[in-house]
Amino acid sequence: MEHAESLEGFCKKLPKIELHAHLNGSIRMSTIQELWDRKADRSGDLPFLEAQKTKDFQSAFSMFSVIYQLVQGLDVIDRITREVIEDFAKENVIYVELRTTLKAYDDKTKLDYLDVVLKAMRETAALHNIEVNLLVSINRAESLENAMEAVELAVQRKDQGVVGIDLCGNPVCGKFSELRPALEKARREGFKLTLHAAEIVNYGETQEILDFSPERLGHAVFMTDDLKSQLFSKKIPVEICITSNIKSQSCDGPLGHHFGEFYRKSHPIILCTDDMGVFCTSVSQEFSIVGDTFQLGREELYDLSLSSIDCSFASEASKETFRRRMRESRTSLGLENK
Ligand SMILES: [Zn+2]
């Protein structure tokens, strides 16, 4: 069937949800540049932009340390939260689960940080017809004590938009097994869990994570056939971040990406950006990439977006709203009503 509209145009118009977006990594490039220009002790070019050219897994993490140096103070956190949500709304993302580790700045506590993010989320979501929830991240490089504290703070704001807990950070640092008590506590408190997994070859830990059965996994790149068959039989949804995996050199290109295998197996997957600022992508672009690379038709892209809703940590009522918004978009997307 011929389409008047380009694949990119269709993917932008398609209502989408985003379930794997780190607040700091989703920062606008122009905001990064502005924060850099404001810095008194800057010298030479922004190292962040330089780091964008030379990519491997560890240089991707060194970029984040540059961002953390620039993103200091709650006024900046407030600003980037609003901008990131605005950017998602502009490309017809109707629901986002943002994630962030909680930081304390000067005389401001981690709870202050959480409150600023939640307030900015609420206010911006109301302006842009988008729903936003938060996942509090546990950085695997930090201590169990820090992880426990993060869960306790999440508990204090549970009914104000915090819906889950994420395990993230440089996968060569720290161990899942050592932080597991904090994740168990989060589970007891009623939080849904999503864990970054198999970003590097670490089959032993990936096995432990599968045994733990979190509600979702992030990435799941380096898996043996045995681990994959366990994942498929457990049906744990996977947040797929193709551009992030390519730019951090976890895979050669879109064609070799495990999206293809997971999709053919009808495994629940969600297309996500991970860090849309750092990796210069958007959810729409991730849909275009799979449409192009794996020859998915428009109905298939629509179904992929629709089925992602089931994997979200939103309330059942909200999920029903997202499905309705998707159904209502079919005519303007040029799809037949069914
Ligand atoms: Zn991530």
From TrEMBL:
Record carries keyword Metal-binding: yes
InterPro entries membership: A_deaminase_dom (IPR001365), Ado/ade_deaminase (IPR006330), Metal_Hydrolase (IPR032466)
Keywords from the UniProt entry: Hydrolase, Metal-binding, Nucleotide metabolism, Zinc
GO biological process: adenosine catabolic process; inosine biosynthetic process; nucleotide metabolic process
Domain of life of the source: Eukaryota
Keyword Cell wall biogenesis/degradation: no
Record CDD domains: ADA_AMPD
Residue stretches making up the Adenosine deaminase domain: 15-325
Reaction(s) the record says it catalyses: N(6)-methyl-AMP + H2O + H(+) = IMP + methylamine
Cofactors demanded by this protein: Zn(2+)
Pfam families per the UniProt record, alphabetical: A_deaminase (PF00962)
GO terms of molecular function: adenosine deaminase activity; metal ion binding
Similarity-based family: Belongs to the metallo-dependent hydrolases superfamily. Adenosine and AMP deaminases family.
Name of the protein described by the UniProt record: Adenosine deaminase domain-containing protein
Organism of origin: Planoprotostelium fungivorum
